[in-house]
Amino acid sequence: MAMDGEKKEKIFRFLQDQIAEAPFRIKAYVLDEEGKEHPRREVFGKLHGFMGDFLKRPSGARCFVLTGLRGAGKTTLLAQLYHESPDRDIYKLYLSVDQMVSLLEVSLQEVLDVYEELISVAFERLDQPLVLFLDEIQYDPKWGMVLKSLYDRSRKVFVFATGSSALLLQTNADVARRAIFEKLFPLRFTEYARIKHGQEEVSGLGAELQSALFKSLTSEEVYLRLKSKEGLVRGYWSHIERLELDRYLRCGSLPYMLSLKNEAWVYDQIKKTLDRVVSVDMAQHGKFSSEVISKVPGILYRIADSGELSLTRLCQTVEISKPKLMEILDVLEKTEVLLRVYPYGSHTVQVRKPSKYLFGAPAFRAMYFNFVGSIRSQGEEMGKLWEDTVGMYLTIFLAKKIHTFLSYDSAQGGADFIVGFGKERIILEVGSGNKGFEQITQTSKKVSAKYGLVVSRDTLMHARDANVVRVPLEFFLLM
Fold this sequence. Notes:
- The protein has 2 domains: 5-184, P-loop containing nucleotide triphosphate hydrolases (Rossmann fold), CATH 3.40.50; 190-476, no CATH class.
- Helix content is 50%, strand content 14%.
- It has helices at residues 5-30, 43-56, 74-83, 97-104, 108-119, 143-153, 166-169, 173-176, 189-197, 205-214, 219-228, 230-237, 244-252, 263-284, 290-293, 296-304, 311-318, 322-334, 347-352, 362-372, 378-398, 438-444, 473-476, and strands at residues 63-67, 91-96, 130-135, 157-162, 180-183, 338-343, 356-359, 404-408, 417-421, 424-430, 451-456, 461-463, 468-472.
- The protein has an 8-stranded mixed sheet, sandwiched between helices. It has a 5-stranded parallel sheet with strand order 2-3-4-1-5, with helices on both faces.
- The protein is globular and about 75 Å long.
- The termini are far apart.
C-alpha cells in the first residue's frame, strides 16, 4: 500500500532532523558535563572492531543485536559506537525506535523506505556502506522481518540494534540465523572501578582466578593457586577506598548510576527503571491485565525482602493465582530483572521443589531496601546483596560455556549454589559475616562435589578435612 503524502512528509522532516541533530544528541551520552568522554564497556572494542572490519570489506558478520536488562548501558554503548564511526564515505543513521513508534506512530519499515528516497539510492544499489544504529528496536512489532529484509537485500548494510526485552529479541526466528546476539551484563567490580575511578585491573588476573576457583582438581590446589595471587589481589585493593565495595554492592552494578552523586537520586532512577520494565516490557507481551500489572511492584518488593520465597504464601499475600504468578516470574526472568536458580536434582525434583529468585543486578534489591524500606537487619540486607552479586558473577561466567548449570540445594540449611561442569560439581556458600562450612558439609552428603567454596569477608583459608576453601569476596570480585 502506497504511503500517503502527509505521512511521507512527516517522515522526511523526522529523518532530516535525525541526520542533522544526531551528532549533538549523541554527545549527551558520550561526553560528561566537562566534555570528557565517558569510559567504555569492555565489549566496545569487540563491536567497534566488527564495524571496522565491515567497512574495510563489506562481508562477514554485519548484524548485531545487543540485549540485556534495562540500565546495563546499551543506549550509551550504541551512542559511543555511532560517535566512533566515520563521518565520510558511509551512510549512517541513528534511530530511537521507541520514540519513532510511540510519538510519530510510524513503523521502522516506513522510515527506511523514505530514507532510501532521501539518499536517492535503493539499498540493493548502495554505492557505499550503510551503518544503522537502532535503539530499543523491540518497540516495532515487525522489527525481525525488517532486519531480515535488510540483511537479504544488501551486503553493504551493517546493523547495530539494542533491545531491553529478551523475551521479544531472542525468540525472533526472522533474525536468529542472521544476527549475532551480544548480551550486555551488569558491571563487574573491575569494570565499575575502571569506569568510576580509572582503576585498571591486573592483566590476566581475572582469568587466573577463574581457573583457580573452577578448574582446579582439588581444594588444596584451589587454595595454593589463590595464595600465589594474594599479593596481586592485595595490590589491586590497596588503591580502592575502603567503602567502595559496599557502594558497588548497593548501586554500582548499573553503569548509568555512576554519574549520580546523591544516593537518593540513584534509587529513584532504579525505581523508574523497574517501573518501565513493568509498565512497558511486561505490558508488551499482552498476557497481563492492568490489574495483574499493578501487583508486580508488590511481588518484586516481597521477593527483595524475603529469605526463602514461598510461592503459596506470596499468592495469598498479593491475591493472585499461582499460574499467573509463575507467568509473571517467567517474564521478569526473561527481562533479566530476576535470576532464577533451579533446585538441584532431576527434572522431577526441579518441578516439585521451589526455585530461588535472585535479582539480576544487586542494585535492584538495594533500591527496595533503601527506597521502599525493609524489616531486615543491615547484616541480613548485605548478605542478600552478596548472594545477588555472586549469582550475577556466576551467570556471567557460565553464559558462554557449554554443558554447565547453576542450581542450589533446596533442603533446609543447604548450600546457596551448586555449579555443574559436565559431570563435575562445585558447591558454593555465600555470607557477608563470619561463615562456617555447615551448609557445604550438608550439601556434600548428597552431591558428589570436587570441593566447596565459601565466599565471605574472612581471610583465605583451606579447611582440608571439610574439602572447602574460604574465599574472600575481594578475590571473587576480581575474577
